[in-house]
Amino acid sequence: MRNKRNATIALVLGTVAVLVGTWLLLRGATSLETFPLNTLNPQGRKAEDIFSLLLKVVVIAGIIFLLVEVGVLWMVNRFRAGEDDVEGEDEPVQVHGNTGLEVGWTIVPAVILAVLAVFNANTILRMDDVSDDAIEVTVVGQQWWWEYRYDLDSDGAVDIITATQLVMPEGRDVELSIQSRDVIHSFWIPALNGKKDAVPGRTHNLVLQADQPGIYQGQCTEFCGLSHGVMRMQVKVLPAAEYEEWVDIMTTPPEQPTEEAAIAGQELFVQQCSSCHQVNGLEPGAEAPFEYAEMPDPDYGVTVDSPLTSKNAPNLTHLMMRDTFAGSLLKLYEGGPAADADSREASVVPAGEPNINNLRSWLRDPASVKPMNPENGQGMPNLGLSEQQIDQLVAYLLTLK
Ligand code: CUA
Questions:
Q1: What is the CA(224)–ligand 1 centre distance, in A?
Q2: Position with higher pLDDT, 360 vs 1
Q3: Pairing with 236, which of 74, 211, 223, 330 sits 20 to 30 Å away (CA)?
Q4: DSSP for 144-212?
Q5: Are 232 and 218 in contact (CB under 8 A)?
Q6: How far is the CA of 228 from the centre of ligand 1 (A)?
């Protein structure tokens, strides 16, 4: 009798431990600040669809789990050998080859899987839904950052090219066409939708929609070389009116530099940086006075003699409109939202003072900040800049807003 009771107690305790452990795990994983990269805290309709599918599966699986546990407990009690049972004589009834049972445990799981398949197919179909007023953005992955190309009026011409941080209005659909310039990457903003691979030579679509303003973190999820682990991205969601403000700023050239250091920095930028990085209108070999262009050149880097394999580096025309840089590894502003945590703070122009130290250390030796292989055309080379040149370039970059 004691053995029976001990086994029952062990099973009950084991079941409780599994349930409590699962609950603790889920509770920790859904904390927005500490674990931004989780799918259990959906912030938009696509992510909500996926989450609700997960819930259905978990509920069905949970019911099966409980039924099996209760069955096990019951069988342990009911069929365990008693103290006065005789070995070899008091055997339970043998049911091997029982047709009814075998048909039953084949059909019941098949029905359960069929029900799950209906939920699955329904969710997969819903993933393709996109509203007519969706904003079209081409996303290009490359070693090791993400580029965003906005075609605002759907005329096939690119109106805004930016990097690292995708900006979108709250509530509205954004339809991404995801591509890659070099190897396979994978685009993933868990709060807003599932993953989608960026494959060279192919275009994959993904729809994002966010219910409320904020900054949502993402991470490349396909191993793509040295800095794969820090190939991050962010989505900044703004109220509709602020998004329009952002578009106005992004489609208006920045003010020309007026300070001496910044003017020198612009000259240096044209000489040293412009063969990879575009500031709309500045071309390598151009002479002062420099003029900004209204529109980005989508072929930039391909048409200039760029040493980069993928023939492009982030467009820096409105660099200071981003909260982070270097593939979202570094904060561009002090005091702003952390580079690796979701946040409810999102403003058109990032809040706080520019993080000069981060910009300086990046320019001083990029590969010491983030693993890269510039000799092989992957990532930013060390240009061997003097401290004075670094100061001038930083002064210029700060004017790009
Ligand atoms: Cu890009 Cu991993």
A1: 4
A2: 360
A3: 223
A4: TEEEEEEETTSSSS--EEEESEEEEESSS-EEEEEEESSS-EEEE-TTT--EEEE-BT--EEEEE--SS
A5: yes
A6: 4
Query: For residues 377 and 300, is the Cβ–Cβ distance under 8 A?
Result: no
Q: Give the residue-averaged pLDDT of 303-329.
A: 86
Position 33 scores a pLDDT of 58
Residues 6+ apart with CB under 8 A from 361: 368, 369
| 3-class DSSP assignment, residue 9 | helix
Percent of the chain with pLDDT over 90: 66
Please list the residues that pair with 138 across neighbouring strands. Answer: 149, 177
Phi–psi pair at 234, nearest 5 degrees: -135, 150
pLDDT per residue as tens digits for the range 107-145: 999 999 999 999 999 999 999 899 999 999 999 999 899
* Whether 253 contacts 317, CB under 8 Å: yes
185 C-alpha to ligand 1 centroid (Å): 4
Distance separating alpha carbons of residues 94 and 275, to the nearest angstrom? 80
Over residues 291-311, the mean pLDDT reads 82
**Mean pLDDT of the chain, nearest integer:** 89
Q: Whose CA is nearest to atom 1 of ligand 1?
A: 185
The amino acid at 226: L
* Mean predicted confidence (pLDDT) in 66-94: 85
- For 130-167, letters b (16+ CB in 10 Å) and e give beeebbbbbbbbbbbbbbbbbbeeeeeebbbbbbbbbb
The closest-lying atom of ligand 1 relative to the alpha carbon of residue 143 is 1
Ligand 1 atom having least distance to the Cα of 221: 2
226-256 pLDDT, tens digit per residue, is 999 999 999 999 999 999 999 999 999 999 9
Pick the atom of ligand 1 nearest to 222's CA.
Answer: 2
pLDDT at 84: 83
Terminal-to-terminal C-alpha distance of the chain: 78
In whole angstroms, give the CA distance from residue 94 to residue 153: 73
